[in-house]
Amino acid sequence: MKHLQTWRQYARRLKTDSYVIYLACRDPRTPWYAKAVAACVAAYAFSPIDLIPDFIPVVGYLDDLVLVPLGIALVLKMIPAEVLAECRQTAKERLANGKPRSWIAGIVILLIWGVVIGGIGMWVWRNM
User: Fold this and answer.
1) In whole angstroms, what separates CA 40 from the centre of its chain?
2) What is the C-alpha separation between 5 and 39, in angstroms, rounded?
3) Which of 42, 53, 105, 114 is most buried, taking the most CB atoms under 10 A from its CB?
4) Whole-angstrom Cα distance, residue 39 to residue 105?
5) CB-CB contact of 109 with 49 (8 Å)
6) What confidence score (pLDDT) does residue 110 get?
7) Which residues of the chain form beta strands (DSSP E)?
C-alpha cells in the first residue's frame, strides 16, 4: 500500500512539473533553448493523443513512463531558479481547478500518424 501512495505522489509531481514547464516556456526570462525543449515536452505531456498508442504492449506506456519524466527533468535543469519558483506557485494554484489540455499538440500528433499511415499506404500500393 505504501508503494501505491509513493507512485501517486510521483504522478502528481509529474503532472505539476509538466504544467510548470509549460508556464516557464511562456516566461520571457526563460532562455530560448529551454523554451524550445519545454514547449516540446509540455505539448507532448498535455496532448490527449500519444505518439505511441497505449494499446501497443509494453512500448505503448514506455513514452509515458520514460520520455516524459526525462524531458521534464532536463527542462527543469535549464530554467532559472527564480522563474521556476514563480511557475511552481502559479501551477499549484491553477491545477487546483483541473488539468489543462493541448489540442494543438493532439492535432500535430494526429498529423504525424496520418503521414506515417499515408506513407505505409503509398508503399503498399506501389509494391502490389
Assistant:
1) 7
2) 30
3) 42
4) 10
5) yes
6) 80
7) none
Domain boundaries, the chain: 2-126
| Cell numbers describing residue 11 | 504522478
For 22, the grid coordinates are 509549460
Cα–Cα distance, 69 to 67 (Å, whole number): 6
**What pLDDT does 85 receive?**
93
Is the distance from CB of 42 to CB of 21 less than 8 angstroms?
A: yes
The per-residue pLDDT for range 113-123, each reduced to its tens digit, is 889 899 999 99
Q: Which grid cell sits at 103?
A: 489540442
pLDDT in tens, 60-89: 777 777 778 888 889 899 999 999 999 989
Cell 505531456 belongs to residue: 45
Distance of alpha carbon 61 from alpha carbon 55, whole angstroms: 8
Contact 78, 33 (CB under 8 A): yes
Average pLDDT rounded to a whole number, residues 38-53: 72
Q: Which three cell numbers stand for residue 7?
A: 507512485
Computed over its alpha carbons, how large is the radius of gyration of the chain? 17
